[in-house]
Design a protein that fits this description.
The chain contains 6 helices and 2 strands. It is mostly helical and about 150 residues long. It folds into 2 domains: about 1-30; about 35-150. Helix 3 runs antiparallel to helix 4, helix 3 runs parallel beside helix 5 and helix 5 (about 105-120) packs antiparallel against helix 6.
């Protein structure tokens, strides 16, 4: 009996050790990033992207024009346009997903951000990039009118 009890303990220790090794190996491969643990909705992605653009435009307005090389200025505007396209892409996903519902306050907030972006862009010299900004703001506003709103 004593032999069986001792064998059971040894088997339990071995099984426990194997399990711990497997858990450790799996944990190293598993990504525990914030985005994986707390995924954001398509609407949130559109909102954050738009907020980023608005913040960058505000920074450009307050920045000394000599702080940025004209080429850097163009790259920054291109990056912001990319974020606007991404915001539109995300809103299209919101419209396609029938289970996706957005609160009316959130839609109003994003519309206000689009208005601020539009005001900032309108105050700049008109060129191709600014025309593209205006176009994207118009598309995003049109998409916001099609989003299913929860009151």
């Amino acid at each position: 009996m004593k032999y069986i009890k001792l064998s059971c303990q040894k088997i339990m220790v071995i099984v426990f050790s194997v399990l711990m090794v497997n858990i450790y190996v799996y944990a190293e491969r598993m990504s525990l990033s914030f985005d994986v643990l707390f995924p954001s909705s398509w609407y949130e992605k559109a909102l954050y992207s738009s907020m980023h653009v608005w913040g960058n435009l505000q920074d450009l307005q307050t920045m000394n024009p000599y702080q940025l090389h004209p080429e850097q200025h163009g790259v920054l505007l291109d990056a912001m346009l990319g974020r606007m396209v991404f915001a539109q892409f995300c809103l299209e996903h919101v419209m396609q997903d029938e289970s996706s519902v957005v609160f009316s306050d959130d839609v109003v907030y994003l519309k206000n951000i689009m208005d601020k972006i539009e005001q900032t862009v309108s105050s700049k010299d008109s060129d191709d990039r600014m025309a593209c900004f205006k176009y994207m703001v118009g598309k995003i506003k049109k998409s916001l009118n099609s989003v299913v709103v929860c009151h």
